[in-house]
Amino acid sequence: MLSQHISTVIQKYYDKIADGIDLRQLILNDTANQLCLFYDEIQELQAFRSKRKRNIEFIKILLNRDDEYFFQFCDLIRKVYSEGKGWMRYNMGEILEQEARISSGGHNAIGGNEICKLAQNVMFPQLNQYLYVIKTEIWKKANSSNHNQSSQTVYGWLRNVPEISQKRYIIREDLLEKIRNQLLMLNKDFSGQILVHGIPGSGKTVAVSQAVQQIVVQDACFHRYGVYWIKIGDINEIELLEVLRNLAIKLRVTWDKPPKTLLEISQHLQEFFSYNQKIGKTLFVFDDIRNQDYMDYLKFARKFIATSRTVYDSTNCRIISSPDCLTQDEAMNVLTQYYSPKTLLDFGSMIEQAVVSCENLPLAIAILGGLKLKKTRDWHKLLNLLNGEETDQKSVGDGSVLHILFNFSIHRLDQSKQHLFRDLGVFKRVKIPITSIMSLWKLNELAARQILTEFSERSLLKYIDRNRRYYVLDDTMVDYLQYPTNPNKSSQAYRLLLNRKLIEGYRQYCKGKWHTFPDDGYYYQYLMYHIQQAEDNDLLDFLSADQYWIETQFQIYKKKRYLSVDLQENIRCLAQKQHMDERMQEELLNILNRYQSYFDIKKLNLVQFLLYCGPKDSWIVNQAAELAKQHCQQSDQNYWVITGYYDCQQVQFSKNLSVKLDMEEEDIMPHWSNPNYGSPRRVHSRCSRDTDRHVCVTEPSKNQEIFRRAFAKRCITEVQISANGKVIACKIGHLQFEWKVYNVDSGEPLRFILRHSSGKIRKVKCCLPSLQFCPVLMWKIENNQILNSSQYSSQEEIKQWEFVKNDSKILLSRDLDEHKYQIELWDFQSGRYRRSFQVPKWIEKRYDGKFIMSQRYSDLWLKYIKYLDNDCAALVSCYDNVVGIFSDSTFERIAIDFTHNIENYFQPIFECNKDVMHIDVSDDHRLIGIFCWLRNVIILRIEAGHIDSYISINVMQDIHDLAFINGSHRLAIYNPQCKYPVQDCNLASYEKMWIPVTSAPLTLTSPPNSESNYTIDKSDWAVIGDTPVIANLIQNGRKSEYILQILRGEKLDQASKHILDRSYDRLFLYNNYEFVVLLRLDKRYKNNNINDDSQIQYHVIVTQIKYHQGFSRAAVNHCREIVVIPMRNDINRFTVLQSRYRKWDQNLIFIFKIEYLDKNEKLLIMKTHVESGETDYYLDNSSDVCRNIKTIYCDDNNLIIHQYSATISMTSVKYYTLGGDRTKIKLFTEHHYDPWNGLTCKIVLPMEGEIDTNVQFARFWNKVRNNFNKMIGKTDANLKCSSFEDKSALVKEWGLEDAHLFMINSYGEVLMKSCQENILHLDYEPNIFANIESLWPKKFFIAVDKIRSKIQYYHHETMRLLHTLHSPNIKNPCKIKGNEKQSLYLCKDNKSNRYCVVKILQDDMSAIDK
Fold this sequence. Notes:
By secondary structure, the protein is α+β, with helices and mostly antiparallel strands. Helices cover 27% and strands 31% of the residues. A hairpin with a 5-residue loop joins β33 (918-921) and β34 (927-933).
């Protein structure tokens, strides 16, 4: 819950945040997940094209988060915009943070205006230094002053670190210095754990908090990823699981199924930190660990400091013992904060005796100070109680010193306040907000604040009186308050009484409407716990079934992206009422945790949620469909189900890498460092022909260049980079070449030094043909010199060598004899010989399919060899067009001869009809990349030494080289002659496209899945009758082959294919026509006289194909050529704007836009009879020069377009009639207007049988450029031309007189739809699109929200929202088409070319009306 003062700051800088921040850059650089955005939020934000709208949507998210989130946002802005310009130059993050401090009453803050003035007088680095000094001084002053204002919460580095009052606690220098030194060492180390132990009340938490704040603020440690403070305490395993799940979600840890045990969540976190090693540098603080077993579940943290009451022998932590008590001087320093010097002087001896009797415990000293005793008899009474000379009959507790002090302090309160304080023991050991305290005490806020302030002054609790008011009790005090005040009552009965009192207080506060209680951070999280403790089963059952309560719970936890235990129990109860068994309930919770944002919390329809969000074709969706059918029979409720999918998705290579690196033709293949050994870096070249050639090193995480070296116009032929990215090498020249090596950080060159056995050294040039860095972090570089160390030499010549991926081993290949190679495996780290293998130079395939050794040079020759060392060791060998694995059960032998009995040792895994050009292996040795066709790559996945599955990738350019990017499953391909030389794809994103291999070898004679990987040129879709149909034009450019693919059926599984004899420009499907219509335009010269430009004619070829099952060649029903009137020879292209099939006269209608070379345009309308071929066309010559022709509306009889007429400098609206049996196509009317003034026109279309059409125009929205609206109705109406000042006036004047009315802008987007007096306003105009076909529906008016990926169904008369389709399987809907009954729809996902079929399980008109 965001504090009011921070909300005020956001509103103050609203415009600057909305206009000044590049949110995409923030997300890209948010490696520590400070924004804590989740997948659906990121997708929704990225869908906005406008930066301002995207930022405004993010501000809405920001306002719904808490204070900590705001300060993390400020910290991230500081990091990203540290070198910003303009307003960013004043460091927006610092301004927002400081303004928040000023608004909250901070005294040591500098205002945003002061920072801006300062920035005008100093350089920006000085400003940053100045701001850092200010922050340090603020922290020092806060620790030395009496203010309760905390400084650490304003820094994004400290998360949930508790605030320490300097009045109640002092800095214990010795203990603080020990902890601080250990933290300094931990900051430098790769990993480490610290354990601070001591008795309860000894000040462990205070000392650790003070040390962490000092180390972060003063010593600038852990600034990269900050600190997470996690309170453990006396919690059970379920509560710890909730804590760790919440942490995982903040860190953006993903999982397929939510973890249900501590072991599972610990493994998820451990895998996350091992993969994200940078985030693993975060410091975790685990406070008050009381269960030794919990230490095993917290080892996922690479760096942590923990506090505990005992020492755990099984841990490997650095142990720090917290002194059990304060020194006498430290105790007196604390008391000086409470007592005046005169009081300390008057009662000095008694105070010293009391300190000794309290055993100098820090908490006891604080309570002693809070007593503020001023009378001698009070001191005597306290000393008697502490020394056991006197007993208190009303004492509670175990009789320890602390409990005696607690009793004495509480008894000094008024009788009523004593009961109020003891009632606080009902709460959990967390921050308790004031609203819950008001409910428990049944007091107003002012009275509660006064009492809490008094308790805080007595040191009984710590009360924070700011915008978010809450108190915190010490754990020892909570233990004390658990004791019953009546010795005749048991602890269980006492807690039962307290919980019932709290429940009754909550009931009175919200007047029985439990969902109306404010979200204070405690009530909704722990109410169900208190109800269970109060044993109020009736209330528990009521809330479990209360729709409003569950809806409110969902709204709260939807922001946190996880389901609490209480909410899960409510969901289970709700699922049982919807007849779900236990198996479905478990799967439901798994899907809800993943797709919670798609759940409609207003309707709470779990069955419908599963139908939309369940995995396609899974058992859970089938079970939900059966339940939906049962519900349909018992009620009038409708259920919608996605029945079929068709995914045209192909593995696509991105050009972004070449764009980011600014690479051009002739640039060489880049190389990447290993992210396991430092920040990932990449080296590449920029080989411009006109300027100097450069070698550059960039850091992708920061998106900045860190190294550049120019080489005049010398040719750069190869680059390499070391494992940690600190050293690069570049090869200069072709025939005469030399290797140049540089230190990336310093920019200095490194020289090759040759050391002789005599001890002499000399500088040499490295002119060897090949140079590689070891894949792991190891090489011999001293100062600025490269020394020769180990040498691998023998009498035999080394034919081939290379490092093993992600290892310190090296493979050497030598000639053993005329027919064998010897492959040697050396360990580069130790310089020792590991193994050797003998493999044949040539092999041949036997008649039974097995391979044997050959001695003929014409057989298969060994080209490449790779070493795999993952699940099992193996040699991957490539013999021309065959790739196989040499493996053996006794592979651990030092020397293995594979040439004997090769048919048993050699396992072929891939075979094709062309030679393999190159192979590469991924870092984890699980993927093998092969390319043997110029435009195809085969990726094999290896499991346990065998091929498991493969994926085929077609590209649109020739491949010259390929490589896996280090530390990932990203594949990069390279072609120096291409405009974008390097392209890459993430294979992890295409998990569903992997094809299992049932038997080896995988044998291919052509690129696999050739038809599915052909280029889909054009596609169209429709619902013909009640059958969804998709048609694709598929082209294979290499074979000049054209295929028409047709998919049909509710599951889109009925396919037919037709091989075409020519290419086509477009294809069309119509809802009322069962043929596929293909269109082709040919430019021809009359009588083949190419010299006569005046005789150019365009032939329109229309082909009709009736789809059917199976495969056919050229199943053409009608193919006719229509000669269009002679055209000018400067036509650039034809574009089809619209096409329709008019059923009543069997005519195909085409609307063409003709574009000329001078960028002028003309409109051509053509209709042709599908049987007779009779053709009518109309070429609009009413204006010679027009541009930007767009169709606004088109049906069987009417066409409305919008264009700009350059000759008159006006924008025009034209209305055409498309003719009938006795009429021709003609321009009915047109209207010109000034585009700067805008226009609104109303067109009343004729009813069936009518001829006249009424068109009226009116000026509207002055000064709106190129934006006019039209209104279309189906009833006749007379309207006087008039001018309107706003849209509401237009709706009032025109919108209520017609039965069906629409307001549509010039882009075809519906702004308003009405039926008689019912009006639907679609406020977010650019986001919702409605098909023209659905303007006069029988049941539903359908709108598509493209930003939020929702399809909305409205009642066609009442305009009431009936249903919202929101599914992760439909992420980017653009258009939908349905059948006439509107019971089945075909929807297209525009970005991924995915289609899906949506249908209603029950199509009952009365149910919809009801």
